[in-house]
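Subject: design request, 157 residues
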């Protein structure tokens, strides 16, 4: 069982630190006999890059003094829980409209990516009045690599 956390500044220069910490922590603890590590690594890298960069650019609007807290838990069955906490304005899922592939727009695909890769995606807006929490879960041993996007789930506390 793995439980660890990392607090980093809201600065894209720390992207590599975040990636390395997450992926190496999991690699050391994961049951690689039951997990396609190359596939999991590729997908989790995409998730962490998407989440961290969006918090830095949008939630914290390039305010490096605001910390980002990342927590990971991995159980004996290779079930991953990833929580990412920020202090930004928050993402209003009610206002989110999935981009249409025919529009050829550059952004707006993050929520779709997260829901495609992860088994469960929850977003809690303003937990305790000043922080947002993105909660992601994935059975890393699962062979179901192509899941349908979930309906957005949000809680305001």
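Subject: RE: design request

Done. Sequence follows.
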């Amino acid at each position: 069982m793995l439980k660890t956390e990392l607090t980093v500044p809201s600065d894209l220069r720390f992207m590599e630190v975040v990636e390395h910490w997450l992926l190496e922590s999991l690699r050391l603890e994961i049951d690689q006999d039951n997990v396609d590590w190359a596939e999991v690594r590729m997908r989790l890298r995409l998730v962490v890059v998407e989440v961290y960069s969006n918090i830095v650019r949008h939630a914290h609007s390039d305010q490096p003094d605001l910390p980002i807290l990342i927590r990971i838990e991995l159980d004996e069955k290779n079930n991953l829980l990833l929580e990412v906490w920020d202090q930004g304005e928050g993402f209003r899922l009610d206002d989110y409209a999935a981009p249409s592939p025919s529009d050829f727009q550059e952004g707006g695909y993050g929520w779709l990516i997260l829901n495609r890769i992860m088994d469960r995606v929850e977003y809690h807006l303003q937990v305790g009045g000043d922080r947002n929490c993105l909660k992601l879960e994935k059975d890393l041993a699962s062979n179901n690599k192509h899941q349908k996007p979930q309906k957005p789930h949000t809680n305001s506390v």
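Residues 2-156 form a domain with the Heat Shock Protein 90 fold (CATH 3.30.565.10).
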